[in-house]
Amino acid sequence: MHKPSASRRLLPATRALLIQLIMLVINLLLAWLVSQFAGHDYPIMLFVLIQATGACFLAWRLGMAPWWRLIHLFFPLAVWGMVQLHVPSGVYLIGFLLSLTLFWTTFRTQVPFYPSYLAVWQQVLALMPSRPGLRMIDIGSGLGDMAMHMAQARPDCQLVGIEVAPLPWLISYVRARWRKSSARFVLGNYHKLDFQEFDVVFAYLSPAAMPALWQKAEAEMRPGSLLISYEFEIPGVVPTCQHPVGEAEKSLYGWIMPGSQT
Ligand SMILES: C[S@@+](CC[C@H](N)C(=O)[O-])C[C@H]1O[C@@H](n2cnc3c(N)ncnc32)[C@H](O)[C@@H]1O
Asked: Relative to the CA of 142, which ligand 1 atom is closest?
């Protein structure tokens, strides 16, 4: 069986950190050589540009996804810009704490927050069985818009959203109260749920999450219940249905669990 290389076995965030560190060492070595042999330091802007382009190049060579290459390119430039602006150190702390609550565990789950939108929800509604009393869950419910829309469109169903990141969960919880939505929001990890309780499971996660999601769905979902994923397919598992939504190349995929029909 093909084994992933050592660098690919690391989490992307760990690889990204290593790339920046390796590039920093190379850059410092270069700066030292220039000062030894040319007798002058190279300008800080050149140092920043070498760091940015070098890290971006390494990320490309090590097979990191395109958005990571962009992060490598812009991160050193952003650090330099912030230093130039003399931003007070408290701002970094606030930014760090906000990111931590918003992207809590993204490092481990590899599923960042980005919301789905109306065209997706309308397509999900079209896929949902019409019988009343369905229990549906949005696993990774973000700010709660998806579940609240479903709860409004299908008042006969029970809508639950589960979110692992505290800040989005808190926002969804407060918004649901404010709007008097019947959708319920739970703070937690969907891996700890039993999918048997649900007739419809909706996921908008990431390619990295899909194989484990399928294992869980196969083991726990009842025959005839429906797993829906926006944008991300399950490798090697043919969907029961596929509907293009909005932008080209993105689809909603549905899998009906084998057994009797809903
Ligand atoms: C792409 S967003 C989708 C948000 C929402 N479902 C929507 O359609 O707008 C994915 C969300 O899943 C959350 N998430 C990732 N892994 C999770 C887990 N194991 N349990 C619960 N939430 C998770 C992330 O924090 C993120 O907010």
From this structure: 27
* Residue 92 within a domain: no
3-state SS string for the chain: CCCCCHHHHCCHHHHHHHHHHHHHHHHHHHHHHHHHHCCCCCCHHHHHHHHHHHHHHHHHHCCCCHHHHHHHHHHHHHHHHHHHCCCCHHHHHHHHHHHHHHCCCHHHHCCCCCCCCHHHHHHHHHHCCCCCCCEEEEECCCCCHHHHHHHHHCCCCEEEEEECCHHHHHHHHHHHHHCCCCCEEEECCHHHCCHHHCCEEEECCCHHHHHHHHHHHHHHCCCCCEEEEECCCCCCCCCCEEEECCCCCCEEEEEECCCCCC
CA 170 to ligand 1 centroid distance, Å: 13
Say if residue 138 is in the same domain as residue 212: yes
Total count of domains within the chain: 2
Q: What is the pLDDT of residues 66-103, one digit of tens each?
A: 888 999 999 999 888 888 888 888 888 888 887 777 66
Range of the domain at 223: 118-256
- The reply to whether the predicted model has a pTM over 0.85 is no
Same structural domain for residues 131 and 26? no
Each residue's pLDDT tens digit, 136-162: 999 999 999 999 999 999 999 999 999
pLDDT of residue 66: 82
Distance 164 CA to ligand 1 centre (A): 7
Rounded to the nearest angstrom, the distance between the alpha carbon of 260 and the centre of ligand 1 is: 30
Residues 77 and 147 in one domain: no
Ligand 1 atom nearest the C-alpha of 115 is: 9
Res. 2: pLDDT tops 50: no
CATH number (domain holding residue 160): 3.40.50.150
